[in-house]
Amino acid sequence: MGKKRIVVLDFGGQYNQLIARRVRDLHVYSEVLPYNTPLEQLADEDILGFIFTGGPNSVYEESSPHIDKKVFDLGKPVLGICYGCQLSAYTLGGTVSPAEYSEYGNTELELTGESILFEGVPAKSQVFMSHTDKVTKLPEGFKNIAKTALTENAAFMNEEKRVYCVQYHPEVEHSIFGQKMLANFVYKVCGAEPTWQSDSFIEERVAEIRAQVGNKKVLLGLSGGVDSSVVAALLDKAIGKQLTCVFVNHGLLRKNEAEQVKAIFTDKSRFSLNFIGVDASDLFLDRLKGVIEPEQKRKIIGKSFIDVFEAEKEKLTDCSFLAQGTIYPDRIESGLGISATIKSHHNVGGLPKDLKFEGIVEPLKDLFKDEVRAVGLALGLPAELVYRQPFPGPGLGIRIIGEVTKEKVRMVQEADAIYREELDKANKTLGLKLSQYFAALSNMKSVGVKGDHRSYDYAVVLRAVETDDFMTARPVNLPYDLLARVSDRIVNEVEGVNRVLYDFTSKPPATVELE
Ligand code: XMP
Predict the structure, then answer these.
(1) Cα(first)–Cα(last) distance of the chain, in Å?
(2) Which atom number of ligand 1 is nearest to the Cα of residue 349?
(3) How many whole angstroms separate alpha carbon 200 and alpha carbon 30?
(4) Rounded mean pLDDT of the chain?
(5) pLDDT exceeds 60 at position 341
(6) How far is CA 488 from CA 153, 255, 455, 494, in A?
């Protein structure tokens, strides 16, 4: 409310937040609302236009999500995408029919007429299609503006009513001029101004947080990862001393990480929040004694985290709100309910639902990771924290194969610090695309020789992968010299390690982490 925006109406497609995100990339605020949002709410004068998303249904099925025809009488522009395109045509009197063949994947879009929507888009360009139904007859007053080999009405419009429809998905990268088309819709059709950015996001969230929380107190479980750190900084700006951050050190963090997190968030020249650091390393190690089964380790770490956090919470009786660093991809993952448990990806820091609070504060819940990073930088968090690579909640506990001991934690911490230091240095000139890289400790002991002595020590495993979504991953082809340097340093500097191996397996069949 109160801010100029483009509303994405959600019809159940998988790319819905991505569409909003593409609009935000154009520096125009955008939010996703359910398709059945009441008309009065959609009439808000600050809504500059609508984008109807795709969805898995067929418009002619009664149970499919439909839309009140009056939306088209609000005088606001509409861009229908895929299902949203078919629905617009259907609602306005056109015909949608099942196609003989589904059209899936990249295809060539050919423009058939002039339109503001395709200004600056070449006559032929690649787009991404994913549909079975298609619009076979346009509603009255509409004009065809693009086709593909299989879909005659690949794009059409009613310029006067400012309704534009495209069968393809402009929001995905495979549609090469998708963003150009969206920019035309957002700027030229809707008249939006590119004024929205991280700064405005921060101001708006700060105002919202203040309105939600009032003068009450907020508790945040701070892990030191990007998301919870950005929430901490944002809440600090909004409510300062009313925020208490509890940082549980489970003793399975990377080398010096606990100290770094503490140094950043206890810096009074930067933050006025209350920081409570709990060193629970001994408790975690104690509970992990003798445990080798990976899932059991994860469960013990998750449960212990909750126990420690709850014990702290008991002491802070006056916190009414719980803040969480949930970001948009976390919500898709839980929403889709991944069917097979490959690994229980409980987020340590992901707290049980029955914790009693008056409310939850989740200011990043609609953002993608790189948007969170931009907000973090704008809030003045250090780049090394903001660009931290993903680190699993159970930490080094799942990077030590077999039983976790204090000695093994030390070995993996040191080996990992060396590896990251050398790789970061080398990558300034190599420019490799690295999504995640770390050292793990295998449970393999092997014979070596150091000086004149026989050794019987552990083998460290180095891993470096590149991935877009972590569902699949490819090993990175690291230069031999670099691997040799890292290996030399590790066996020389890390007591207890006499061999270094490089893991060259893809995911699948391996996973990124070793457990
Ligand atoms: P895998 O090993 O499943 O890892 O291929 C994919 C990505 O997820 C991270 N990961 C976790 N993150 N809690 C987390 O918060 C977990 O239990 C967990 N397990 C794996 C992993 O670091 C990689 O980025």
Answers:
(1) 46
(2) 15
(3) 12
(4) 92
(5) no
(6) 63, 19, 16, 10
What is the pTM (predicted TM-score) of this model? 0.75
Which is higher by pLDDT, 383 or 277? Answer: 277
Q: How many Å apart are CA 115 and CA 99, to the nearest integer?
A: 26
Look at residues 173, 169, 231 and name the one whose alpha carbon lies nearest to residue 206.
Answer: 231
Question: What is the Cα–Cα distance from 80 to 479, expressed in whole angstroms?
Answer: 48
Whole-number Å distance between alpha carbons of 397 and 292: 10
Contact yes or no for 251/281 (Cβ under 8 A): yes
Select the more confidently predicted residue: 299 or 339. Answer: 299
Residue 198 CA to ligand 1 centre (angstroms): 28
DSSP β-ladder status, 497-502 and 274-279: unpaired
Tell the residue nearest (CA) to atom 14 of ligand 1: 392
Cα 420 to ligand 1 centre (Å): 18
Q: Which atom of ligand 1 is closest in space to residue 342's alpha carbon?
A: 3
Task: Tell me the C-alpha to C-alpha distance, in Å, between residue 232 and each of 244, 320, 326.
Answer: 9, 16, 12
User: Which residue has the least CA distance to atom 17 on ligand 1?
Assistant: 345
Question: Using CA positions, which residue lies closest to atom 20 of ligand 1?
Answer: 392
The span from the CA of 235 to the CA of 227, in Å, is 12
Distance 462 CA to ligand 1 centre (A): 16
Q: Is the CB of 470 under 6 A from ligand 1?
A: yes
176 residue type, one letter = I
Catalytic residues: 82, 169, 171
